[in-house]
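Dear colleagues,

For the upcoming journal club I promised to circulate an example of a predicted protein-ligand complex. I picked one with zinc ion because it came up in last month's discussion. The inputs are reproduced below in full, followed by the predicted structure.
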Amino acid sequence: MQLFYIAGVAVPVLLLIAALAAAMRRVPRADAVVPGMPGYDQEEAKRVADNLSEAIRFQTVSFSDITQRDFTQWVNLRGFLRSRYPKVHETLASEYTPGFSSLFRWVSPEPSGDPILLCGHLDVVPAEGGWRHPPFEGRIEGGYVWGRGALDCKNVVVCLFEALESLITKGYTPSRDIYLALGHDEELGGGEGAKMFARYFAQQGLRFSMVLDEGGFISDAVFPVGKPVADVCVAEKGMVNLRLSVSAPGGHSSRPPKRSAPDLLCEAICRIGFQPRPAQFSDLIRDNLKEIAPWLEPDLRRYLASPRLYDRKLLKRLADDERTSPLVRSTAVPTVLQSGVAPNVLPATAEAILNIRLLPGDSAERTLRWIEALTRDLGIRVDVLFESPPTGVANYKGAAFRDFAAAVSDVYPGIPAVPGLFCGGTDSRHYEPFSEAVFRFSPFILTADEHATVHAENERVAVASLGAAVQFYRRVIERFAPRFETEEAE
Ligand SMILES: [Zn+2]
């Protein structure tokens, strides 16, 4: 009777399991999209995923309005890291803590050269829109950790801590000092965190043999190649925010003038959008393309091989492709528009904020002249609200880049590490004076869809890529600050 009963239940249960298994096969699994993934410690990947999930729950949101920021979240996140990574906090000295940022130092008993600097940031951007899972829940589902900060960049912070904790547990001592800089306001420009660290480095007379911050991913989303590429960014675009404003007579909307304030502003925005800054090659982008030449589409490869004949065609192709366009030109896009108070009232003013990203070599000054020339006859007033110049280009032909690329191929065999341009901003722009090897790289394998979730809805990171990232950070430490061997050691 009991057996019959069990069998009676078991049949529908088995059917259900089979149906679920079939449904799960249709969902692309995160680990199925990680080509060439080396074997990794599954236990470790799971532990990192759990820790990242918890870290996401602290709502360290960098609202530009300071009254909206809840700094207890930063305090609690730091407390969580302390409790989860006790050996790091026992072994590394707390050097300097401006605001809610932290600078740690792992002191080598006998440094063999300049220290290295590893970086991440604790804050995130606000989470708006419709998310599949609540953005601060840290849900682990379908092979992913979901939530704000999963890619930018609590993943970096947790994986760095995991790598350090595991090395300390194995008795590792570095042969040069290792600094760990965690900013609390990167998403607002790092003025109270990274900038203060930079001031401290200057006071201490520090130089770093290598700086590693968040940056490009391992993805096929950035370059026109059909395989993932490790985008090790060696330069960062600059940023300018401009306010465009215009006034025109207001009044009753039933008697509109020939051109209202919104008309004039919209025309200005359209001119800027349809007449972008000219595209141009830099040595960096040319060298980048050479590195990935074997995987480029055949006609791009042909263009690249004969620059005299085809440079213009190649540049046009890059400028026309949304993935590569930001790599070859300064971009300008309206991000805030304001005008009007009621449906039947003509607005007397209209204004827009224009967010501009400058190519290395371009300047805010030149951009301002360009915008003014395009909009002068419309009576548009242009004010600079914020400007931060592009960085220089780190040395990507020296030993540090070669060692870095070797660490990439140790962990991600077959994936080329190419020098790239970072189109966003990072804390490391403040550290440029202290090293000629500032690399912006987040060692996580992503699809183009996942890549698009940074600062957007449904931000998520594949659990499998977390395991590999921890391996990568360990490898970087082992290559740049090899284990210190004492005389007595065998
Ligand atoms: Zn970031």
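Two points we might discuss: Residues 2-26 form the longest helix (25 residues). Confidence is low (pLDDT under 50) at residues 1-36.

See you all on Thursday,
B. R.
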